[in-house]
Specification:
Blueprint: H1 2-7, E1 15-20, H2 28-35, E2 41-44, E3 53-57, E4 60-64, E5 77-80, E6 85-86, H3 88-100, E7 108-111, E8 115-116, H4 120-132, H5 144-152, H6 159-162, H7 165-187, H8 194-208, E9 212-213, H9 215-225, E10 229-232, H10 261-265, E11 272-280, E12 283-285, H11 298-305, E13 321-323, E14 325-326, H12 327-337, E15 341-345, E16 355-363, E17 369-370, H13 377-382, E18 384-391, H14 408-421, E19 425-429, E20 437-439
Parallel strand pairs: 1-10, 1-11, 2-5, 2-10, 5-7, 6-8, 7-9, 11-15, 14-16, 15-19
Antiparallel strand pairs: 3-4, 12-13, 16-17, 16-18, 19-20
The chain binds guanosine-5'-diphosphate (GDP), 6-O-phosphoryl inosine monophosphate and magnesium ion.
Length: 450
């Protein structure tokens, strides 16, 4: 009862969602690592090892695909929620790498409801991309989309099955013949051997068993105690299956947007008090699909390679496409996610530009001005961005640790983004290291709605 009463206190913050506001790689891992100190649980709620979250702190540099970025705080509980698609071999490898580098995984738990990325999923992912030809999505090829497709088709295999040899055998006896027909007859891919798949997955299940729990119980108990829980998003709103630039999106169910967070961890929307939206100070995208402000010129190249951390995809090593800040797309994502608190990352990458552009509207081929995101990727691929140009600051921000220290023109740039997006920027990140941030407001504390 005490927990329930505590949840109603005005200054109390039980669950906070952190989402990417653009096309992914906004710095979610880096920001979770920065703010996780104030939470007792950090939980991933969606996607799979298509995500790549970089964290640099006093333990070193890490690339996380599935494990939540709160893992570097020894006493915090980290949860891979039911909404995450897990490739067991990749997750085990990640756990072993973390352990071997001195990161404790003692408080890491994986939901027994997670869906498993099985060997046929990456095969189908790559084959589908080939079949799509010029319309290829540019997926990460990790089998994440096909795994979620099977989840929705109700032919998935879950973590609870993987760690239970009898359940796994029974499930495979039904699913594998079905999948083998699809592989052979639709894609011309040789069938997978039942005994091999069973033996390999029994072994993987046995190694994962110590981590597997009904994680919803852990989360519900923490909420009852009045603990704060951080829900870590993957990807970004513009890659979301519903809100994003369909069909050039990712296939996570639950969605990568804030709306998916409760479902992917097993809590109701009423518990979520704050949605932190992370935005880069400019735009990037990996893979195909429309990107109105993309720069294919020297400016784009500078954004891509000349910042302190080049724009290279964390998971696949592909170069990220780059462009000026798109306030139309970013405002749309703030609205779709109910963002209450904004974070601006990689501001330092803009330090050497004498002038900087912000896209404030799109113009369609037939001369119409759009202030909102069109649903069609075809329409979006043909719009011309309308820019306003602001003066750069030509000074290093990476050394700034307070709002006052920021150059005036950098402050004006941030203020303009706040105005265009309709959200406050509460954290400004000026470098990849844990301390390279300006915290204007603690995003784990409720503030009065304005
Ligand atoms: P995520 O997927 O949203 O967690 O982001 P990624 O880790 O894939 O990509 C973000 C990249 O930007 C990583 O290389 C980070 O180390 C780096 N990064 C994060 N914040 C900053 C920042 O403020 N400045 C610079 N220069 N790099 C940053
Ligand atoms: P984080 O969490 C950037 C992109 C892929 C491709 C599309 C579909 O690090 O921000 P998929 O393999 O998911 O079916 O590919 O989505 N994509 C990402 N881009 N960051 C990510 O994750 C991404 N996860 C998927 O490049 O365009
Ligand atoms: Mg990433």
């Amino acid at each position: 009862m005490a927990g329930r009463l505590a949840r109603m206190r005005p200054n109390f913050m039980p669950a906070v969602v952190v989402i990417g506001g653009q096309w992914g790689d906004e710095g979610k891992g880096r920001i979770i690592d920065l703010i996780a100190q104030g939470a007792s649980i950090v939980a991933r709620y969606s996607a799979g090892n298509n995500a790549g979250h970089t964290v640099i702190n006093d333990m070193g540099e890490f690339k996380l695909n599935v494990v939540p970025a709160g893992i570097f705080y020894r006493e915090k509980t980290c949860i891979v929620g039911n909404g995450v698609a897990v490739d067991p071999a990749i997750l085990l490898n990640e756990i072993e790498t973390l352990s071997s580098r001195g990161v404790s995984v003692e408080h890491l738990f994986i939901s027994d409801r997670c869906h498993i990325i099985m060997p046929w999923h990456p095969l189908i992912d790559l084959a589908d991309e080939k079949l799509r030809g010029d319309a290829a999505i540019g997926t990460t090829g990790r089998g994440v989309g096909p795994c979620f497709t099977d989840k929705v088709a109700r032919i998935g295999i879950r973590m609870g099955d993987l760690v239970d040899p009898e359940a796994l055998r029974a499930r495979l006896e039904f699913v594998l013949p079905y999948k083998n027909k699809v592989l052979e007859q639709l894609y011309g891919i040789p069938a997978l051997d039942f005994d091999t798949v069973l033996a390999e997955h029994n072994a993987l299940g046995a190694r994962l068993l110590p981590f597997v729990r009904d994680t919803s119980i852990i989360v519900h108990d923490a909420l009852e105690k009045g603990d704060t829980i951080l829900l870590e998003g993957a990807q970004g709103c513009l890659l979301d299956l519903d809100a994003g630039t369909y069909e050039y999106v990712t296939s996570s169910v639950p969605s990568s947007s804030a709306g998916g967070a409760g479902i992917g961890i097993g809590i109701g929307p009423t518990v979520i008090q704050q949605v932190v939206g992370i935005y880069k100070a400019y735009m990037t995208r990996v893979g195909n699909g429309p990107m109105p402000t993309e720069l294919l010129d020297e400016t784009g190249r500078i954004l891509q390679v000349e910042g302190p951390r080049p724009e290279i995809g964390t998971t696949t090593g592909r170069k990220r496409r780059t462009g000026w800040f798109d306030a139309v797309a970013s405002r749309y994502s703030a609205l779709c996610n109910g963002v209450t608190s904004g974070v601006l990352t990689r501001l330092d990458v803009l330090d050497n530009f004498p002038s900087i552009k912000i896209c404030t509207a799109y113009e369609t081929e037939d001369g119409r001005r759009l202030q909102s995101m069109p649903a069609s990727s075809v329409v979006l691929s043909k719009v011309t961005p309308i820019y306003e140009e602001v003066e750069g600051w030509l000074a290093p921000t990476s050394v700034c640790r307070s709002w006052e220290e920021l150059p005036e023109n950098a402050k004006s740039y941030i203020r303009r983004i706040e105005e265009l997006l309709g959200i406050p920027i509460d954290i400004v990140s000026v470098g990849p290291e844990r301390d390279q941030a300006i915290i204007v407001h603690d995003v784990l504390k409720v503030k009065p709605r304005t």
